[in-house]
Amino acid sequence: DTAVSQTPKYLVTQMGNDKSIKCEQNLGHDTMYWYKQDSKKFLKIMFSYNNKELIINETVPNRFSPKSPDKAHLNLHINSLELGDSAVYFCASSPGREQPQHFGDGTRLSIL
Amino acid sequence: GIQVEQSPPDLILQEGANSTLRCNFSDSVNNLQWFHQNPWGQLINLFYIPSGTKQNGRLSATTVATERYSLLYISSSQTTDSGVYFCAVSDYKLSFGAGTTVTVRA
Fold it and tell me: Are strands B83-90 and B31-37 parallel, antiparallel or unpaired?
């Protein structure tokens, strides 16, 4: 029944590793997003896809690569993890651009 | 980009009290949304309110787009209202304020 689901909820890994976070929405929405929330709770958009097309790509290192196999899924792959990547990553979706956004529960990424 | 300022940064309330949170933004926006992040970290969309007034139970919000501000009212606060309230505005992307941390004491 979960509208926007992210896996895993927690990810603990070592510097230099590669990891992926998956996101799926069952709301029938066209637009999906990735956000990063830092330790001070500041939320910043990273990417947005509309119908599988990348429409927002903020200043994010190329180690971060989003992939949208279909409009219900948006995954985030991170290469060569660094200490500064430790944060909570949120996936969100909306019916279309400039519409109300619904968030997943977040993935807490900790880099050792 | 658009600047979003929220005030106050922190608010401590006694259960049953009313309060007002403010969000100022620096430019014209396409939409404005209020979110509540509960103590478990979940982000809940409270209002989508580019202009006008909306009510949802004990919460209501007003946005005056021409004057570039929005207000969130919490009435008869309950301990479950604790958490961080974020205002977010969009020109082409959603930009979040730093949030107001609300603590409601029993």
Answer: antiparallel
Residue A82 CA to residue B38 CA, distance in Å, equals: 28
Closest partner residue to B93 (CB to CB) among A45, A88, A99 is A45
Neighbours of A28 (CB within 10 A): 9
How would you write the pLDDT of chain B (106 residues) with one tens digit per residue? Answer: 899 999 999 999 999 999 999 999 999 999 999 999 999 999 999 999 999 999 999 999 999 999 999 999 999 999 999 999 999 999 889 999 999 999 999 9
User: Could you tell me which residues are beta bridge partners of residue B84?
Assistant: B37, B101
Nearest to A48 by CA among A94, A14, A4: A94
By the CB < 8 Å criterion, does B54 face chain A? Answer: no
CB B29 within 8 A of CB B50: yes
